[in-house]
Amino acid sequence: MAEESLKESEERYHSLFDNNHAVMLLIDPNSGNIIDVNPAATSFYGYNNDELIKMNIDDINILSEEEIHDKMQKSVSSQQNHFLFKHRLASGEIRDVDVYSGTFAVDGKKLLYSIVHDVTDRVIAQDKLKQSNEELQSLVKNFELLMKNCNQQEEELLQIYNELKVSEERFRSIIETFKMHICVQIKKEL
Fold this sequence. Notes:
alpha+beta, 2 domains
């Protein structure tokens, strides 16, 4: 009965693992060796199953060995279970991936199971959105400076206008005084 239950459990595991469309890896957290992969992983990474299970996680994760080991230990100790990494495919292309990891016991040995989601398009879109926001903020700042400059120029033009009005009034006053003076002169001569 226990043997039959174990066999059903193994079949359930293989069915969930092998038939899942999400990329899944089983990794030895001590060595970083890839123990098992599902078909979605072979399709995503571009390696066949035999190639992948001969690899170490640092063959595809571009972090340093120390950083990878640190992240695996955080996952094993349940301090962190979600990571954003860059993984190298067989083609050499680097993809941004969200990785969700947890522990899984096989024959009494603790392994990491990692579910990998390609988020490259999302990261590119976020980067473009960030760049657009920065450009928009720059445009707004430039517009504010332009408006401040226009306001200063408007104030200067208003001041010049007011000075010209005062000058015009003075000029008219001088002309009126001159006219009166000429008129008085003309009357004297007559």
